[in-house]
Amino acid sequence: MNIRFGEENDYLQLAELKWLHMEEDDMDYNEINLLGVDRQVFISEYVSFLKMNSSYQIFVAEEDGSIISAMFICIIPKLPKPNRKSESIAYLTSVYTRKEYRNKEIGSKLLAFIKDYAIKQKCELLFVWPSDKSVHWYERNGFSNENEIYECGLLGE
C-alpha cells in the first residue's frame, strides 16, 4: 500500500469512489443521492470540479495502482490577530475506503498522513462532520466533540 497526494490522473478513480460512497449511503442510510442521476454525467461533473477547484488537497491510499481510500481537506486561513501568527484550520471531507479494505487500518494510516501534513501547514484544528456510523472511528483517531459549531442553512436543503 502506498499513501500519497492525489493527482490529476486520479480524478476518474476518485469520481468512481464518490459514486460508490453515495451508493452505500443510499443503501445504509436510506438516502436518495443517486435517484435520477446519470452515472457518467456525475463522473464527468466530478472530474471537472476537481480540475477547476484547487481548494481541496487530495490524499489517497493505493494498492497496485488502484485507489482504495481517499480523503480531502480544505485549508482555511485564519485572519491574523495582534501578537499571534496567522494560522489555519482544515476541513476533512469525502472520507471513503472501499468496503473490502476496511478494518485493516488503511483509513487510520491515511488520516495520520493527513494530520502530519496539516501540522506542517500550521493548521491548529482539523474538523469533520461525521456520519453516525463513523463517529467511533473518528474518536479512535483523536477527534472529539468538544466544540459547538453553529450553522445557518442558506439553501433550504
From TrEMBL:
Which is one Pfam family of this protein? Answer: Acetyltransf_7
Do you know which CDD domains this protein is assigned to?
NAT_SF
Q: Which residues form the N-acetyltransferase domain?
A: 17-157
GO cellular component term of the entry, any: ribosome
Q: Which InterPro entries match?
A: Acyl_CoA_acyltransferase, GNAT_dom
User: What Gene Ontology molecular-function terms does this entry list?
Assistant: acyltransferase activity, transferring groups other than amino-acyl groups
Gene3D superfamilies per UniProt = 3.40.630.30
Listed A to Z, the keywords are: Ribonucleoprotein, Ribosomal protein
Q: Supply the name of the protein.
A: Ribosomal protein S18 acetylase RimI
Q: To which species is this protein native?
A: Clostridium amylolyticum
